[in-house]
Amino acid sequence: MKVRTRFAPSPTGYMHVGNLRSAIFEYLIAKKNNGDFILRIEDTDQERYVEGAVDFIYKTCSLCGLEFDEGPNNGGEFGPYIQSERLDLYKKYAHELVDKGHAYYCFCDEERLNALRKEADDKKIPFLYDGKCKSIPLEEAKKRISSEKYVIRQKMPKEGVSVYEDLVYGTIKVENSVLEDQILLKSDGYPTYNFANVIDDHLMGITHVVRGNEYLMATPKYNLLYEAFGWQKPTYIHLPMVNGEDGKKLSKRRGDTSFMELYEMGYLPEAIVNYLVLLGWTSEDSREIFTLDELIDVFDPKRIGRSPACYDVKKLNWINSFYIKKLDLEKLLEITVPHLEKQYDLKDKSDEWVRKLISIYKDHLSYGKQIVELTKMFFEDLSLDDECVEFLKQDTVSDTLSVFKDEISKIEDWNVLSINEAINNTKNKANVKGKMLYMPIRIKVSGVMHGPELADTIYLLGKEKVLKRLEG
Ligand code: GLU
Question: CA-CA to 414 of 20 to 30 Å: which in 184, 336, 424, 459?
Fold first, then answer.
C-alpha cells in the first residue's frame, strides 16, 4: 500500500515553527517510502479563522521545499482538500453513524450544559456530558431534528479499556469510562476536529497519521470511529511537544516564532528545516547537518523521541551560520543588503565597497539581519564598553597607537597590503606583538574586540575615518 501522510493545519493563526516541524516529519515519512504528501486545510473552526493564514502556510511550505502531491492548489483525486468544502460528507457519515447505533442526536441546550459544567467544576472533576439524550428513542429523535437544534454525539463504551500502539509512545491504554460522548457534528452543521480528522484521513487514504502528541490520549475515540465504520486504522506517530525558550508549549495564539519571521530576518529555509528536524529526532550517528534530500534517506521515525523538545535560538543560530558560510556572495548579499539599506545610508558607498563589507562578515553572521549590528562601526560613532576602555589603559597602548597612526598617515596607496605593512611596521617599531599589537588598534578604530580581519576592516573604514579615530 502506498504510504500517504498529510499536513493538516488549521488556519486559526500563523503557523509557528512547531507546526512546521510536524509538516517536515510528515513530508519525510511520505517521501522516505516513495509516498504522497497531502495538504488538508482544517478550517472548521470558523470563529477562529485568521485571514491570510492559508497563504502563509503555502509560502512557508514552498520556501522550505515541502512540495505537496495533493492539496487545494495541487488538486488530486481525493478532494476537496479544504474541510469547509466537505460539509455534506461529514453530515452523511454522522447520520450514518446514528443509524448504526454508534452515535445519537442530542438536544441539550447551552443552559443545561453550562449547569453540568458548573456542577463538575464545583466537584473539581472533569466535565463529561452525562448522556441524557442517548435514551431518546431514535424514531422520536428523528422527528425532533427537523424542528429542533441538535448536535450528533459519539456513543462511547462505558466499560473496558481502549488500547492502541503508537510508533513513538508505544502502547497507549485509556479507560473507556473517561471517554466523553463527544460532539461529532455541531448544531451549525460543521464537524468537530474529532470527527472530521477520521472521516478525511480514511477517505483520503492516509496510512500514517503524524501529529502533535496533544492528540495521543484522544486517539482511542478516533479508533472507535474507525471500528464503527469498519475502516482500517492508520499507523499513529505522535510527535513530542515543542516548547519555547520559556519552557511553555509553542502556540499560535501566543504568536510564537513563525518561519516567516525567521526568513525575514535572514535565516535560510534549508537551515531552518535542518534545525527543526532535530527537535525531537536524532540521527543514528549523531550527525546534525542534513539537506532535505539527505533527510529523506536517513530519517527514521523510530528515532523520534518522547520528551519535549526545546526551541533553542542558539542552536538555530549555529546551524544557520554553518549554512551561511557555504553561500555564494550573491546569495549572501540577498539576505543582508536589504537590512543594511533599511538601517544605514549607503548612497556614497560603491557596490564594490558593499560587496567587500558583506564578504568579510560571512564567517561572523548567524543570520542576515545581524549585519546591521555587526557593521555599525562603519556608519555610526563608536561607543566603547568597559572592557574595551580597561584594555586601552594598559602601558604600551598609547605608544602602539601613536606609531600606528604615523604609519597609517604615510600610506599613499590605500589597500589591504599597505595596511598590513603599516601593522607590521608598528609591530617592529613599537616592539609589541600579538594581542598587545592588534587589540589596541582594533578597539580604537572599530570599537570592538573581535571582528573580521583587521586590515580588511581598516581598509573599508577608509583612511580619513581611521586617522580621525586614532586621534580621538
Ligand atoms: N488541525 C489540527 C491541528 O492543527 C491537525 C492535527 C492533525 O494533524 O491531525 O492541530
Answer: 336
Task: Report DSSP letters for 302-335, one per residue.
Answer: GGB-SSPEE--HHHHHHHHHHHHHT--HHHHHHH
Determine the distance separating the centroid of ligand 1 and the alpha carbon of 386, expressed in angstroms. Answer: 51
Residues 391 and 467 in one domain: yes
Residue 8 Cβ < 6 Å to ligand 1: yes
| C-alpha R_g of the chain | 31
The verdict on 361 and 402 lying in the same domain is no
The DSSP code for 82 is B
Measured in Å, residue 397 CA sits from the centre of ligand 1 at 63
Minimum CA distance residue for ligand 1 atom 9: 211
Looking at the fold, whether 360 and 397 belong to one and the same domain comes out as: no
Which ligand 1 atom is nearest residue 211's CA?
Answer: 8
Sign (positive/negative) of CA torsion 428, 431, 433, 437? Answer: negative
pLDDT tens for the chain, 472 residues: list them. 999 999 999 999 888 899 999 999 999 999 999 999 999 999 998 888 889 999 999 999 999 999 999 999 999 999 999 999 999 999 999 999 999 999 999 999 999 999 999 999 999 999 999 999 999 999 999 999 999 999 999 999 999 999 999 999 999 999 999 999 999 999 999 999 999 999 999 999 999 999 999 999 999 999 999 999 999 999 999 999 999 888 888 877 776 789 999 999 999 999 999 999 999 999 999 999 999 999 999 999 999 999 999 999 999 999 999 999 999 999 999 999 999 999 999 999 999 999 999 999 999 999 999 999 999 999 999 999 999 999 999 999 999 999 999 999 999 999 999 999 999 999 999 999 999 999 999 999 999 999 999 999 999 999 999 999 999 7
Range of the domain at 436: 386-471
What secondary structure does DSSP assign to 208-225, as a single string? Answer: EEEEEGGGTTTHHHHHHH
Ligand 1 atom 8 nearest Cα: 211
Residue to substitute in 7, 10, 26 for testing ligand 1 pocket (most ligand atoms within 8 angstroms of CB) = 10
- Helix or strand or coil: residue 30? helix
Separation of 445 CA from ligand 1 center, angstroms? 55
- Whichever domain contains 430, its CATH number is 1.10.10.350
Domain count, the chain: 2
Q: Is 26 in the pocket of ligand 1 (CB under 6 A)?
A: no
Nearest ligand 1 atom, CA 214: 10
In terms of domains, do 366 and 441 share one?
no
Looking at ligand 1, which atom is closest to the CA of residue 12? 4
Q: What is the pTM of this model?
A: 0.93
